[in-house]
Write a structure and sequence with these properties.
Layout lengths: L2 H17 L1 H12 L3 H7 L2 H23 L4 H12 L3 H10 L5
Length: 101
């Protein structure tokens, strides 16, 4: 019996939890720390600017991925990671995209 397969099957439930729901909770908690008071203190232009920057960054990340013939979902994953916050966003977005294997 292959040791790596035995270890993988033994730890699969924990790895699945760490790969799927845990990053989602982490991203939600990161977003929750920005309170309504903070947003209103900064003024109404702030949320509009944040949304505009997010959309532009998504486009800038997605277009080259498609130009390089990357899978549509993979290009979206990379763009989402860059636009939102990096590794935690990559894991969260990957967990909701369909499996393309």
């Amino acid at each position: 019996m292959d040791v790596s397969k035995a270890l993988a099957s033994k730890h699969a439930p924990g790895l699945d939890m760490a790969a799927k729901p845990l990053p989602r909770v982490g991203v939600a908690l990161l977003g929750a720390k920005i309170s309504l008071l903070t947003i209103t203190t900064l003024g109404p232009a702030t949320p509009a600017l944040v949304i505009a920057c997010l959309i532009v960054t998504l486009g800038i990340g997605y277009a080259p991925g498609r130009w390089l013939n990357l899978d549509r979902n993979f290009a979206l994953l990379l763009a989402g990671a860059a636009a939102i916050c990096g590794v935690s966003a990559t894991l969260a977005v990957a967990s909701v995209l369909p499996d393309s294997r």
